[in-house]
Design brief:
The complex is a heterodimer. Chain A is an all-alpha fold. Chain A contains 15 helices and two strands. In chain A, α3 packs parallel to α7 and α12 crosses α13. Chain B is built from 13 helices and four strands. The chains are: A mainly alpha, B mainly alpha.
């Protein structure tokens, strides 16, 4: 089914325009001049500290997009990115706080721990599909709730910082924090990790046999199986890779950003869901994904500035994001019905034409 | 600890948890029968809850709130209807995006319309009254749980036999199932699959509107951001687990309602909230695992 989601560029451009117009209508209906609001948004996203914040927000948004693009490309729908991200985030944070040793090693270990925890949670969903015939779509999503519950329990009780009223861990020691790069006034060095994931995935998709095989499975799993691809094994490793990246992103959000694992903080911003929309918009290709992620990050950071300055809630950014995908997936922008119904084979004049469902 | 666990009060909280899920699942069931893959129950429920609170606040009447919730959610469901039925878009992508749209829209409108963030409570929001049926509501154990419900509560329980009758004993129900199972044959017999699919989607909108109203005006009297918190997804699972049969869906919903009610009770007995809140989802996963091989349709749909 995912094969038909490779949206063409014109459709993408038109759906973004349509979503911005719908967003403007919503802003106008709620009593603010949409031009003023959008102006604040652009300014807030791209000027001053906005550029830094937008770049910083690209790490979780593009990162989660990349994480989810791997299974999506193979036709595996991982809706549990959130759970994989929070569990990975907590595992990474606990390593960064409690592991003794030289900071560089502790940092590396905490990133690995985040990846392992995220991958483990994603593996549960993959195992469910293969051995219990539970669709990953459902199991990955449902697994996110216990994941949140586990982290919530752990940071409220065993690992709680008794000196603060909010439910959170103690802060990560200064030395073990992922450092800032001297870019736009300080963006986390996790940006380098993001670049690494992006390049690695691009090379994998374009240049490797396994990358070709996952695409093939995404387009037609039966054909792929017939062609000798171990589809079950593929499901396992695309989920492992996806969960691992999600776990690293979760680790970054604490060890590279907030330094305390605050209960509910990682899920509040909905990065996993924004990442999901980003990979859908980019048809799971790394470079368009970077562009789509930059756009959605700017939308959110600009939205926050708009909220501060003209008191329009930033969540309009979430509305615009979702509308882009609704418009695209609903084929509301261009008539693509010809392509959607390949059973309509053009025939010579005079012949009987057969149309309809097969 | 356990001897005091199972009593009328537990049954009451089971029904409290069960009713919104059941209402949404009834909508999902009809869609499933009409061959529409419906995973936007979660978002529609959230829209319903918001519209219910807004309507009740503005009109100071719970019934007006319920009506507005149903109307608004039915309208909202047309997005999925048009995208998935008329335009034949990908139902999974559309469903996920519609859920996120609902979340974004309600969290945007909450501060914009009511000037609050997170939770909206106000004395002007009129909650749904529970209507006790004389004599029956005095029955031990089941009286309060079954015969002292809100209007959406009674509707949800009445809907089960009614939907069964409709699907399996009326010509329209037969046609609806035909559209879902053999669309080409249905078309050949002059049944417009588009009409039936639209009707099913709008029906699920009405049902989710009712579910949201029960959640926001019955179970509590407030709107909280993302207050559907996965119940719509549980309803999706209930439809699968119950094989889109009214009795099966009732059973599956009851299982989750029981898990939530029990979790709520265990919380009172000292278990941490974080653990008991996860109970319905864990029970759902276990039930799904035990029910293996019932999901061929969705597996086929997701496997290209």
């Amino acid at each position: 089914m995912m094969s038909q989601s490779s949206f063409d560029r014109l459709s993408v451009a038109l759906s973004i325009v349509a979503a911005l117009l719908i967003g403007a209508a919503v802003i106008a209906l709620s009593g603010t001049n949409p031009l003023l609001a959008y102006g604040e948004m652009v300014e807030g996203a791209l000027t001053g500290s906005g550029l830094r914040n937008t770049t910083a927000r690209m790490i979780p948004i593009v990162g989660m997009g990349l994480a989810l693009s791997i299974p999506f490309r193979a036709g595996v729908i991982n809706l549990g990115g959130e759970g994989q991200m929070v569990l990975g985030g907590l595992a990474g944070t606990l390593c960064a706080i409690y592991l003794p040793g030289p900071p560089a090693l502790v940092m590396a270990a905490s990133i690995v721990a985040g990846a392992v925890a995220g991958a483990f949670w994603a593996f549960l969903a993959a195992a469910g599909q293969i051995w219990l015939k539970l669709p990953i779509l459902i199991s990955s999503l449902l697994l996110a709730y216990p994941a949140r519950a586990i982290t919530s329990y752990l940071v409220r009780f065993p690992f709680a910082d008794p000196t603060v009223t909010s439910s959170s861990t103690v802060p990560v020691p200064d030395a073990n924090r992922i450092p800032k790069l001297p870019l736009f006034g300080g963006v986390s060095a996790s940006l380098v990790l993001l670049a690494f994931f992006l390049v690695a995935i691009a090379i994998f998709n374009q240049r490797t046999v396994a990358g070709y095989e996952t695409r093939m499975t995404g387009l037609n799993s039966r054909f792929s199986r017939y062609g000798g691809v171990g589809v079950d094994r593929q499901v396992v490793w695309v989920m492992l890779a996806s969960g691992a990246i999600a776990g690293v992103i979760g680790t970054h959000l604490v060890v590279g950003e907030t330094y305390r694992f605050l209960d509910g903080d990682l899920v509040a911003s909905g990065f996993a869901w924004t990442g999901l929309l980003v990979t859908l918009l980019a048809s799971h290709r790394p470079l368009p994904l970077l562009a789509a992620g930059a756009f959605f990050s700017a939308l959110q950071i600009g939205g926050l500035a708009m909220q501060r300055n003209v008191n329009v809630p930033w969540q309009i950014a979430l509305v615009v994001q979702a509308v882009v995908i609704v418009v695209l997936a609903g084929r509301f922008v261009l008539s693509r019905r010809q392509r959607a119904q390949p059973e309509e084979i053009p025939m010579a004049e005079g012949e009987l034409t057969v149309t309809g469902e097969v | 600890m356990f001897d005091q666990l199972f009593d009328g009060a537990l049954l009451e909280s089971v029904f409290r948890a069960l009713i919104p899920i059941l209402l949404a699942a009834i909508g999902g069931l009809v869609c499933e029968r009409a061959g529409v893959f419906q995973i936007s129950l979660e978002g529609m429920m959230l829209v319903g809850a918001f519209a219910a609170v807004a309507g009740s606040y503005l009109g100071q009447s719970a019934l007006l709130g319920v009506t507005i919730a149903m109307a608004v959610t039915a309208l909202f469901s047309l997005i999925l209807g048009y995208g998935a039925v008329t335009r034949r878009g990908d139902p999974i992508v559309l469903g996920v995006a519609v859920n996120l749209l609902a979340l974004g829209l309600t969290s945007f409108l909450l501060p914009q319309l009511f000037g609050v963030r997170g939770v909206f409570q106000h004395p002007r929001i009129d909650g749904l009254d529970r209507l006790a049926i004389p004599f029956l509501s005095d029955l031990p154990l089941i009286g309060q749980a079954l015969f002292n419900l809100t209007i959406p509560g009674y509707l949800s329980l009445l809907a089960i036999p009614l939907i069964w009758l409709f699907l399996f004993r009326t010509p329209i129900g037969l046609r609806l199932r035909g559209v879902g199972e053999r669309p080409a044959s249905a078309e050949t017999l002059g049944v417009s699959s588009t009409q039936y699919k639209y009707a099913a989607v709008v029906f699920s909108g009405l049902a989710c509107g009712l579910a949201g109203a029960q959640l926001a005006l019955g179970n509590v009297v407030q709107f909280a951001e993302n207050m559907s918190s996965g119940r719509g997804w549980i309803a999706v699972v209930a439809v699968m687990l119950g094989r889109a049969h009214p009795a099966g869906v009732l059973g599956a919903s009851a299982l989750f309602g029981f898990a939530e009610g029990l979790g709520f009770r265990l919380q009172g007995n000292g278990l941490p909230v974080q653990i008991t809140e996860a109970l319905p989802y864990v029970v759902t996963l276990i039930a799904l695992a035990l029910a293996r091989k019932r999901f061929q349709r969705i597996l086929e749909l997701t496997a290209a």
